[in-house]
Amino acid sequence: MGTIDADFSGETVVVTGAASGIGRAVARAFGDAGATVVVADVRETPKDLEETVPTHELVEDRGGTATYVETDVTDPTQIESVIEAARTFGGVDVMVNNAGVHRSRSFLEVTPDDLTAVQAVNLRGTFFGTQLAARDMIDRGVEGTVVNTSSTTAERPEPNHAHYAATKGGVQMLTRSAAIELDAHGIRVNAVAPGPIATEIREGWSAEARADVADAEGLPSRAGRPSDLPGAYLYLASAQADYVTGETVWVDGGASC
What we know:
Blueprint: E1 12-16, H1 21-32, E2 36-41, H2 55-61, E3 65-70, H3 76-87, E4 94-97, H4 112-140, E5 145-149, H5 162-182, E6 188-194, H6 205-210, H7 230-237, E7 248-251
Parallel strand pairs: 1-2, 1-4, 2-3, 4-5, 5-6, 6-7
Helix pairs in contact: 1-2, 1-7, 3-4, 4-5
């Protein structure tokens, strides 16, 4: 099978929620592609049970340039701090709004606190991450890109996901709305919608992936892994996707077919 070489040399990429899981894999991929990576997360060390090296150190160990900024994306002022940190490397060229939380609850058991907590990270964090990165790009006259992390649950409901799915549906519409408004500034906004991926955001999933459980939660072959995702993010952020904006790319191993 052929390969596509991505080159982000000279570009600065911010990845929120990059300490673990999908964000960690995406940050590493951008680092491998030559980008300077700003790792933004509430924690520096990975949640993944078998990982110990912080993501920014992992990128540097692989020959890249990276830094870590402690960031709670529910607070726009902390997102501003991340943008400011990126300016020390020239400013944001690619913003990946990936930070997310998940609380598995049946619809009848979701509490106001559950809904507020999930909305604050998944939707509010993505909204202001997109807005503040776009402002930086506009101020600097840069035609940058934003890639948000949605979910297949935005359109394909699952039990115990109503509050989570609502936020991811919001991310999908936010992506489309921002794409329309930011097009005048040459800024593209897209999203990736992962299917069930084995990360620590979902209790028990990492163990299932390591065991390579067949047909887990309806998947046609195997549980998804974070390493299955970065290609979609790199494509959407690249010049090869110059005519792509407002789109959501589903990466789910065919589970939604």
